Amino acid sequence: EAGVQNFLVPQKDRAEWEKNLRQVRESGARVYACNGFIPEALRCTGPDVDHDAVLAFAQTAFERAQESGVKIIVFGSGRARRVPDGFDPDQAWRQFVSLLKRMGPIAEKHGVLVAIEPLNRNECNLVTSVVRGADLCREVNHANIRLLADFYHMELEDEGPEAIRYAKDWLVHCHIAEKEGRKAPGSSDHDFTGFFKALREIGYKGGVSIEGRWEDFDKQLAGALTTMQTQWKAAEPQSIL
Questions:
Q1: CA distance linking residue 114 with residue 28, whole number of Å
Q2: Which end of the chain is more exposed for a tag (fewer CB within 10 A), N or C?
Q3: For residue 240, with 0-12 CB atoms within 10 Å meaning exposed, 13-18 middle and 19 or more buried, which class applies?
C-alpha cells in the first residue's frame, strides 16, 4: 500500500509519474492500494468546497492507479473532509455524499474502488465509525464507493467487531495496528481475533494492510505477519464433532 500523493503524484507531471512507475515495475513489487488521497487544500466540506478541483485531482489519480494496477484508493484525508468549526454538519454530510456520487462513475471508468476510511475523532469529525461509513456508502449507492475498516481507529472509538458485520456489504479493505502507540502487530500482546472472526463470518476476501509505526521495519515485519497469521487462524470457526 503506497501513497496517492507520493506514488501516483496527481499534481506532478507525467515524467515524475513515469519515474515512480518504472521504479515499482523494476522492483517486481505490486502496489495493491494507495492511501493519503486528497490534499488538505482541496476542501471536500465547508464554505470553501471546490468539488470540481477535487474530482480533477481524483481523475488523474484514478488514471494512474489503473495504469499501475492499483485496485483500491483509500479515502481517509481527514483534513480535507473535516467539517469546519461552525459549519452545519448536516450540510457537510450532504456535500460529502454529493462529492462521492460524482466520484463513483470516474472510479468505475478506471476500474478502481474508493474505500472510505472512518477516522477517530482526534483526526476527523466526519465519518468516525465503520457503522457511519456503511450508512454513507448506502446513501451514495455506487458500486465503486466502498468502505475500509481500520482496527486502530475502531479501537479508539470503542467500536467492536459487530460493526464489521453491519458493514459486510460494503467492506473492501482493512488496516491494522495496535491501539497502544499505533504500532505494528506483535509489538505487544494486542488481540485482533475478534475482528478477524467477524471478517471470516462475513466471507471477507479483501486485503489487510499494516498501517502503523515501526521501530525497525526489517526486524519487525516477519513477526508482525506471524502475529496476523496466528490470530487469523485462531479466529477460524471450530468444527463441532
A1: 25
A2: C
A3: exposed
Dihedral sign of CA atoms 41, 44, 49, 55 in order? positive
H/E run at residue 74: strand 72-75
Q: Cell numbers of 89, please?
A: 454538519
Please name the residue that has the C-alpha cell 490470530. Answer: 231
Distance, CA of 115 to CA of 75 (rounded, Å):
6
Longest dimension (CA), the chain: 62
Lateral strand order in the sheet of 145-150? 2-3, 33-35, 72-75, 113-116, 145-150, 171-176, 207-210
Give the DSSP letter string of 7-32: II-TTS-HHHHHHHHHHHHHHT----
Helical ranges in 69-158 per DSSP H: 78-81, 89-109, 130-140, 151-156
What's the count of helices (H) and strands (E) in the chain, helices before strands? 9, 7
Torsions phi, psi for 73 (to 5 deg): -110, 115
- What single DSSP character describes residue 39? -
177, 210 Cβ separation under 8 angstroms: yes
Answer positive or negative: Cα dihedral of 118, 204, 8, 29.
positive
Q: How do the pLDDT tens digits run along the chain, 241 residues long? A: 999 999 999 999 999 999 999 999 999 999 999 999 999 999 999 999 999 999 999 999 999 999 999 999 999 999 999 999 999 999 999 999 999 999 999 999 999 999 999 999 999 999 999 999 999 999 999 999 999 999 999 999 999 999 999 999 999 999 999 999 999 999 998 999 999 999 999 999 999 999 999 999 999 999 999 999 999 999 998 755 5
* Amino acid at the residue 79: R
